[in-house]
Amino acid sequence: MKPPRDDCRGKKRHHNRAGALIHMRKLQEPGMHPYKCPQCRKWHIGHTNRADGIQSRLNRLIGPDPKTLPQH
């Protein structure tokens, strides 16, 4: 097995797809998918597109944009 590269640093490694799916469902974050990493050959979860990933990180750091919240 190849040693993990910087691409894997900070990512949780799952032994199989089922483990990655369980983790993904617990996060309840839209736009996520499991994928097998070609570097470490373990499973990770990631955002379907880069914009979703950036928005998700911003939401965790500073909260969601009030303009995007549902109106009550």
Write the layout of secondary structure elements.
Elements lengths: L16 H11 L4 E5 L6 E5 L2 H13 L10
Antiparallel strand pairs: 1-2
Structure report:
With 72 residues, the protein is α+β, with helices and mostly antiparallel strands. The chain has one domain. The chain is built from two helices and two strands; from the N terminus they run αββα. It is elongated, with a radius of gyration of 14 Å. The protein starts with 16 loop residues before the first helix and ends in a 10-residue tail after the last helix.
Task: Give the gist of this structure.
This protein has helices at residues 17-27, 50-62; strands spanning 32-36, 43-47.
Contiguous uncertain segments of 5+ residues: none
Mean pLDDT: 79
Number of domains: 1
Helix content: 25-40%
Order of helices and strands: HEEH
Structural class: alpha+beta
Distance between the termini: 52 Å
* Total strands: 2
What does the radius of gyration come to?
Answer: 14 Å
Number of helices: 2
Q: What is the overall silhouette?
A: elongated
Strand content: 5-15%
Side-by-side strand order of the widest sheet: 1-2
Largest sheet: 2 strands, antiparallel
